[in-house]
Design goal:
248 residues, alpha/beta, eight-stranded mixed beta sheet, 10 helices, 8 strands, globular, binds S-adenosylmethionine
């Protein structure tokens, strides 16, 4: 049934919440970045944020994802945009990336670190950063400490480790980084490139898989996720964590 997920996600402009403005806003906080930084984009999907990073920097970007069709799509877009010299597209696992220590001035990861675990990702990826390198992660968080029971119950199943956003600041510090800045992703960034096209795709797929019960269960669960966000977006969302590796 994994194919059902991928059939949805391969059709979308992005594979998670985010937008160009927020990627640029986070990037602007990195005031000590070298002029031509080496950048690693972890869990790049089809590379929506990779292309934004290519626009705002003259550095080299390695875009990594474990789903080969996403990487194939990104390769085509990279060629078409003339970024072939600056963006390398790699199929790989974020849990076992064997780049040399200190390879990158910046590691960027939108909507992906939570799959491995925020703290685990911070620790596992740290050696890949140069001294004073930056780590920028967008992560699902609670915006309020109290939330209605329905949404608490939903995330108790879907993402039990989800934290109130401020409670992740000390985790950043204890993992060997300084907090440089934080901002919440605006809700438009969930709808424009992600949930609005997802809902359209779900309608199409409901027709296509009308006789497939297992597929309908998956489509229902994605629709429920969207409905929860529509109802409770003031309580949770993505936070952008802009952090810098401590030198010692
Ligand atoms: C929520 S999507 C975010 C994609 C993209 N950054 C965006 O914001 O549109 C998470 C991405 O992580 C990728 N992913 C999942 N597990 C992975 C792993 N173990 N190693 C590398 N990428 C992984 C998925 O294929 C997917 O593209």
């Amino acid at each position: 049934m994994e194919e059902i997920y991928f059939e949805i996600f391969e059709s979308l402009p992005r594979q998670g919440p985010g937008d160009e403005e927020s990627t640029k806003k986070a990037f602007q906080k990195l005031v000590e970045l070298p002029e031509h930084p080496e950048i690693l984009d972890v869990g790049c999907g089809t590379g929506s944020q990779t292309m934004v990073l290519a626009k705002v920097t003259s550095g080299k970007i390695t875009a990594l994802d474990n789903h080969a069709p996403f990487i194939e799509k990104l390769k085509r877009d990279v060629r078409w945009a003339g970024y072939g010299e600056r963006i390398s597209c790699v199929v790989g696992d974020m849990a076992s990336m064997n780049f040399a220590e200190g390879s990158f001035a910046l590691i960027w990861s939108e909507g992906t670190a939570n799959i491995m675990g925020f703290e685990k990702a911070l620790n596992a990826w740290r050696p890949l950063l140069r001294p004073d390198g930056y780590m920028v992660i967008s992560e699902m968080v609670w915006f309020k400490e109290e939330a209605p029971q329905e949404i608490r119950d939903y995330f108790a199943k879907e993402y039990p480790d989800m934290k109130y956003y401020e409670h992740s600041f000390p985790i950043v510090e204890s993992s060997g980084y300084k907090m440089i800045d934080y901002f919440p992703l605006p809700s438009e960034a969930w709808w424009k490139n992600y949930y609005t096209p997802s809902e359209k795709k779900l309608v199409e797929m409901r027709r296509k898989y009308r006789n497939n019960k297992d597929a309908q269960v998956i489509l229902d669960s994605f629709q429920l996720e969207i409905d929860m966000y529509r109802k409770y977006s003031e309580y949770y969302g993505y936070g952008f964590y802009i952090t810098q590796k401590k030198s010692s």
